[in-house]
Amino acid sequence: NAGVTQTPKFQVLKTGQSMTLQCAQDMNHEYMSWYRQDPGMGLRLIHYSVGAGITDQGEVPNGYNVSRSTTEDFPLRLLSAAPSQTSVYFCASSDGSGNTIYFGEGSWLTVV
Amino acid sequence: DQQVKQNSPSLSVQEGRISILNCDYTNSMFDYFLWYKKYPAEGPTFLISISSIKDKNEDGRFTVFLNKSAKHLSLHIVPSQPGDSAVYFCAASARSNTGKLIFGQGTTLQVKP
């Protein structure tokens, strides 16, 4: 079972470059979200979506864009990368029933 | 403002003993709490959860206790095993936003053989 799949796993960007982190889930979950993890900060919510066509901001949305055109995919876009966006990014999905939320394996991003 | 706090960055226990990890929250709208375990270079994996209508939930060696009046929850692992060594995150949500979790900073548990 694939679950939540993130690509790429590792990426190095130069300041000002743009890129998209891909996230796909095969569990037909309505809820999807993006988190970043920084040392000593735990995981912080960037953006989330409660269904196709619906997105909202989390705790740290600045510098990131999202869209949800299908139930399966929830890409995270960095329009102009900054060194402060160096982090590990996790995508997650859930069925909204109050049960578990499943995470992908993470994407390590370095902005130089 | 940190809505979910894990005040102990690390904890070391002997194999076979009890591990107790603590978590405090400030937002009274939170009504669903989860514990995740994370190994290096992997995504968090779900461990156990508790709804605010309960004060205890047990799953094998893992038990979560919730004290709503104190806005405090704890995870007990008995007996602790070396394979339990990982970072443990406490997370909270309001049921109306089950895709939206607020995490604590994490506690690194080391279980010594």
Mind explaining what this structure looks like?
The complex is a heterodimer of chains A (112) and B (113). Chain A has no helices and 11 strands. In chain A, a hairpin with a 7-residue loop joins strand 9 (87-94) and strand 10 (102-103). Chain A is 0% helix and 52% strand. Chain A is mainly beta and 112 residues long. Chain B is mostly beta strands. Helices cover 0% and strands 53% of the residues of chain B. Chain B contains no helices and 11 strands. In chain B, strand 6 and strand 7 form a beta hairpin. Chain B starts with a strand and ends with a strand. Classes of the chains: A mainly beta (112), B mainly beta (113).
Chains forming the largest contact = A-B, 32 and 27 residues
> Please, what is the average pLDDT of chain B?
93
**Global mean pLDDT of chain A:** 93
**Helical/strand content category of chain A:** mainly beta
Anisotropy-based shape of chain A: globular
The percent range for helix content of chain A is under 10%
Helix content of chain B: under 10%
Q: Which parts of chain A are unreliable, with pLDDT below 50 for 5 consecutive residues or more?
A: none
Figure out the total of helices of chain B. Answer: 0
Number of helices of chain A: 0
Largest sheet of chain A: 7 strands, mixed
The ordered string of helix (H) and strand (E) elements of chain B is EEEEEEEEEEE
Q: What value does the Rg of chain A take, in angstroms?
A: 13 Å
* Distance, first to last CA of chain B: 38 Å
Structural Rg of chain B: 13 Å
Shape of chain B: globular
Order of helices and strands of chain A: EEEEEEEEEEE
Number of beta-strand segments of chain A:
11
Q: Strand fraction band of chain A?
A: over 45%
What's the quaternary structure here? heterodimer
